[in-house]
Write a structure and sequence with these properties.
The complex is a heterodimer of chains A (about 50) and B (about 160). Helices cover about 0% and strands about 60% of the residues of chain A. With about 50 residues, chain A is mainly β. Chain A has a two-stranded antiparallel ribbon with strand order 2-3. Chain B is built from three helices and eight strands. Classes of the chains: A mainly beta (about 50), B mainly beta (about 160). Chains A and B meet through strand 1, strand 2 and strand 3 of A and strand 4, strand 5, strand 6, strand 7 and helix 2 of B.
């Protein structure tokens, strides 16, 4: 297997929408190719 | 969507489980908070458009249930792509509306992409490039809408 040394970079911005309740969430960001999905899970903290 | 995990086995910091309704076998790697899902390619209408995957084993000594199938070990190590993120925690402030930016890095497995391209190379119009060009700089309340990037769930775990 050969993984490219230079990755494709993607910039994302996550903003709260009106009415979002404060608390501890998890955010899952993933990509799928063929029959395989690969997802990263991070902590998402919403404050008031 | 409820994937209905039913069976699990923990080994080497990976928790393997079935996705009964999701029609997949998956593992969660506790070392790096990564979820990898392998879709099962067959489905049956009588089983709710799934193949009804239930029990499984990680080696030849275990027993299964309901369906015969195998996920080759090469499929586990030879993933088509993998991802990294610039942060493992972000904070949103509802009073100010302030969010956070993060970078996602996609590493395609060139071996597999070459196998799927007639001209034997990763092309600018290949799936990863399309993903980058069409959606990656969109900002709409923090939600990227391209189908290839799935913000699969925002699950509240505490109020």
């Amino acid at each position: 297997m050969i993984y490219d040394n230079i990755p494709y970079s993607i910039e994302m911005e996550v903003k709260p929408i009106k009415g979002l309740m404060p608390g501890d969430y998890t955010l899952t960001i993933g990509a799928r190719y063929g029959s395989v999905s690969y997802s990263k899970i991070i902590d998402l903290v919403v404050t008031k | 969507m409820i994937l209905l995990p039913y069976w699990n086995i923990a080994e080497y910091n990976k928790i393997w489980f079935n996705e009964h309704e999701g029609n997949a076998i998956a593992y969660f790697d506790t070392d790096n908070s990564t979820l990898v899902e392998y879709q099962i390619l067959t489905r049956g209408v009588l089983w709710g458009n799934t193949s009804n995957p239930l029990k499984f084993a990680l080696d030849e000594r275990g027993s299964g249930e309901n369906k015969f199938g195998v996920l080759q070990s090469s499929e586990i190590t030879d993933l088509p792509l993998w991802l990294t993120l610039s942060k493992n925690r972000i904070t949103l402030d509802t009073s100010s509306g302030k969010g956070e930016k993060l970078m996602l890095y996609v590493y395609p497995n060139s071996t597999q992409f070459r196998e799927h391209n007639k001209d034997n190379q990763v092309t600018p119009d290949g799936p990863i490039k399309r993903l980058q060009h069409q959606s990656l700089h969109q900002e709409s309340y923090g939600i990227l809408r391209h189908s290839l990037i799935m913000i699969q769930s925002i699950l509240k775990i505490a109020i």
